[in-house]
Specification:
The chain is mainly alpha-helical and about 325 residues long. The chain has helices spanning about 15-20, 25-40, 70-75, 80-110, 115-125, 135-145, 150-160, 175-200, 205-210, 215-240, 250-255, 260-265, 265-275, 280-310; strands spanning about 50-55, 65. The protein has a two-stranded antiparallel sheet with strand order 1-2.
Length: about 325
């Protein structure tokens, strides 16, 4: 052993050494970084309008009248804006919970189908609504809820649940539920794609061992499939929390009317009506800043909580 020489302990590479060792990947990422800078970060200079009485076409963006936090104070004291925040959060939360639960359940059921042609048919049928525009979906929902030959009213009357047609789109108490089921019908099939892909990575030997131990399909789904896709569920949930102030715009705008405006108007519609139509660009910019800041905070908090609980994290 006298001739034994221990290997030299290699020092960890510095950031710049790692960067140079992967210069091909860095070079490939330059166009994407340039694109993100031009279209995502450079427009942030427009946030200066939130601190100005901005007048379109009067002067340059940096030569406007500066008013400090005047628009922020007005926005947070506006009962209409606070109502729109409530509507946005309520509809987003309903869409998030219902969408996640139904997408996971549907993916589990599709994964258990053994008849391949039927399985493909179910997948294709559930995916198709995703490719329809919201204007088409809104028209279909309006027709289905119509008091004249609307399928929903006809079914409810045939089952003796109601005596006469209900004006669903004129009753504010139904609006959030209508938006939730519309989003569910349109997107639930598309949301199952990632879960089905995650299920293919589960080791088949686990199912074989469970069958030998006498586990039925429900046991295998609960003890093997769900734990197998748990990291995927956690990551997607973290990413979705950043969109809690993105309840949507199209479905609320197309189905909303004066009778249900108290429940249908969201932050995006507020920005359109108050900012674009009335020319108050400064106020609409403040509302957009609020959405961005809250989204970043929500993603950061949910990512941290997931790490503390031992779940998968984004970073």
């Amino acid at each position: 052993m006298s001739g034994f020489t221990p290997l030299a302990i290699r020092k960890p590479k510095t950031f710049w050494q790692k960067l140079l060792s992967q210069w091909e990947l860095v070079l490939m990422s330059v166009p994407l970084l340039f694109y993100k800078f031009i279209f995502s970060y450079l427009p942030l200079t427009g946030w200066t309008m939130a601190f100005q009485n901005y007048k379109l076409g009067v002067r340059g963006i940096f030569n406007q009248e500066w008013v400090g936090f005047k628009h922020f104070q007005f926005l947070f004291s506006s009962a209409r804006f606070l109502r729109d925040v409530r509507n946005t959060l309520a509809m987003s939360f309903m869409n998030l919970i219902s969408g996640y639960i139904c997408a996971v359940v549907l993916a589990l059921l599709i994964n258990e189908v053994r008849h391949l042609p039927f399985k493909k048919a179910v997948q294709n049928i559930s995916y198709l609504p995703h490719f329809l525009s919201w204007i088409i979906v809104a028209g279909m929902v309006s027709m289905a809820l119509s008091t004249e030959n609307g399928i929903i009213n006809e079914v409810l009357i045939a089952l003796s649940f109601i005596d006469k047609p209900i004006l669903f789109l004129a009753n504010k108490d139904y609006f959030w539920q209508i938006v939730m089921f519309s989003n569910l019908w349109k997107e639930v099939g598309w949301s199952t794609i990632i879960y089905l892909a995650a299920m293919t990575a589960i080791d088949p030997s686990l199912y074989e061992a469970a069958v030998i131990d006498g586990a039925n399909r429900y046991h295998r789904m609960w003890h093997i499939t769900l734990p197998g896709i748990k990291p995927t569920i956690a990551i997607l949930l973290i990413m979705s929390t950043g969109y809690l102030l993105e309840a949507g715009f199209e479905i609320q705008y197309f189905l909303g009317n004066g009778l249900v405006v108290e429940m249908s108007e969201t932050i995006d519609i507020f920005v359109l009506r108050y900012g674009m139509q009335q020319g108050n660009y400064s106020l609409s910019t403040v509302a957009s800043i609020l959405k961005t800041v809250v989204s970043v905070i929500l993603v950061t908090v949910s990512n941290t909580v997931a790490g503390k609980l031992g779940e998968e994290k984004l970073i």
